[in-house]
Amino acid sequence: MLINATCVAIENKGVLIVGPAGAGKSDLALRLIDQGAQLVADDQTELKIEKTELFATAPPSIKGLFEVRYVGLMEMPRIPKARVALYIELTLLHEKLERLPEYEDMFLLEKPVRRLKLPAFAGSTPAKIRAALHYPLATGKE
Fold first, then answer.
1. 3-state SS of 55-67?
2. C-alpha torsion sign, points 110, 61, 25, 22
3. How crowded is residue 91: how many other Cβ atoms within 10 Å of its Cβ?
4. Which phi and psi (to 5°) does residue 39 adopt?
5. Are 114 and 105 in contact (CB under 8 A)?
6. pLDDT by residue (tens digit) across 119-137?
7. What is the end-to-end Cα distance of the chain in Å, rounded?
């Protein structure tokens, strides 16, 4: 399955970043990479099931390529695949979001993945993604 998403891995946990063109997928991924995340795929991501787990990888034509807006298309170190742990749906900064949203899963290839809506260009968004990967919710859902 091919989706319009950028994927990075944080401590071997894949984070899919989705949104329309110009929403800030690559910008957010670049900020995460600058803080130690690893590139899996930029702009287009292939999803596949391996031994009952959902994995993300780059299509062959774009492996290791990363668009840095206003700078250019760059060759960047990457990892070949990551087990998908989080689905980030980007929103506009002014879009009203729930302060304490209910836990929600997104189903990809029939596998549940935690879904969060976050503003792409908010300074705290990379920290919120890291927190979602590392700490359980008070409700007990992880």
1. EEECCHHHCCEEE
2. negative
3. 18
4. -70, 135
5. yes
6. 989 899 999 999 999 998 8
7. 25
Q: What is the pTM of this model?
A: 0.92
Q: Are 32 and 126 in contact (CB under 8 A)?
A: yes
SS3 76: coil
Q: What's the CA gap between 64 and 123, in Å, rounded? A: 26
Q: For residue 38, give the 3-state DSSP assignment.
A: strand
Sketch out the chain's domains with CATH numbers.
2-134 (3.40.50.300)
d(CA 17, CA 84): 11
The string of pLDDT tens digits covering residues 53-108 is 999 999 999 999 999 989 999 999 999 999 999 999 998 767 788 888 989 999 99
Least Cα distance to 142 among 106, 111, 113, 107 occurs for 113
Tokens 């250019």 identify what position? 72
Rg over alpha carbons for the chain, rounded to the nearest Å, is 14
| CA dihedral sign, ordered 41, 46, 50, 52 | positive
Nearest residue to 14 (alpha-carbon basis) of 84, 89, 106, 64: 84
